[in-house]
Amino acid sequence: MRILIVEDDKDLNRQLAEALTGAGYVIDKAFDGEEAHYLGDTEPYDAIILDVGLPLMDGISVLERWRRDGRTMPVLILTARDRWSDKVTGIDAGADDYVTKPFHVEEVLARVRALIRRAAGHASAEILCGPLRLDTKASRASLDGSPLKLTSHEYRLLAYLMHHQGQIVSRSELTEHMYDQDFDRDSNTIEVFVGRLRRKIGNDLIETVRGLGYRMQDASGQS
């Protein structure tokens, strides 16, 4: 899962990035509204954390432009505690949720998890797929009740497929959501990670759809 953090306070941006990276997300950063708009307009994010008070272009204007251009990614806005009007304006502009400053980073993590789950059609913090269980709160996975030992890339791949189970996901889509903007992306490495995952969870849960990509299936093979 790939997230854009838009916050001009470098310390706060770094704190959020460290917490989200530790939770298994891939992070891109922006420090002003113009950079934020460009990245949100050109990169496929699973969620965006957007500060309202930004240099060059304010967060509300950025959000309005995204929505006007048909960008539907979930957006969590950050507002100052005494600016209740920002909350109303942000929601009206297309924000999915908001957090007021100062805040606990754990609250932001929880709200981001919820936004990503809801966008994929999942209500619970735990996503099930046959014998597989993905605990999005703890960033852990288990098979038949036994914890799975996964690398960070394997976890990201599994999490994306489980959030989108039943859907065909191309290698290029997986690559875009597993690596940040500066990573030297090679979609061929996805095959390697899929092979490693299959050795850990079995061959039947991840189906190869020839010429199209991969699809996560349940234990009975029903997508």
TrEMBL record:
Modification 4-aspartylphosphate occurs at: D51
Keywords of the record: DNA-binding, Phosphoprotein, Transcription, Transcription regulation, Two-component regulatory system
Response regulatory domain mapped to chain residues: 2-116
Pfam families from the UniProt entry: Response_reg, Trans_reg_C
Signal peptide residues on this chain, from the entry's feature table: none
Entry keyword annotation includes Chloroplast: no
Domain OmpR/PhoB-type residue range list: 124-218
Family annotation (InterPro entries): CheY-like_superfamily (IPR011006), OmpR/PhoB-type_DNA-bd (IPR001867), Sig_transdc_resp-reg_C-effctor (IPR016032), Sig_transdc_resp-reg_receiver (IPR001789), WalR-like (IPR039420), WH-like_DNA-bd_sf (IPR036388)
CC annotations in GO: cytosol; protein-DNA complex
Annotation: DNA-binding region: 124-218
Keyword presence, Hydrolase: no
One record GO biological process: regulation of DNA-templated transcription
GO function term, MF aspect, one: transcription cis-regulatory region binding
Protein name per the record: Response regulator transcription factor
UniProt organism field: Aureimonas fodinaquatilis
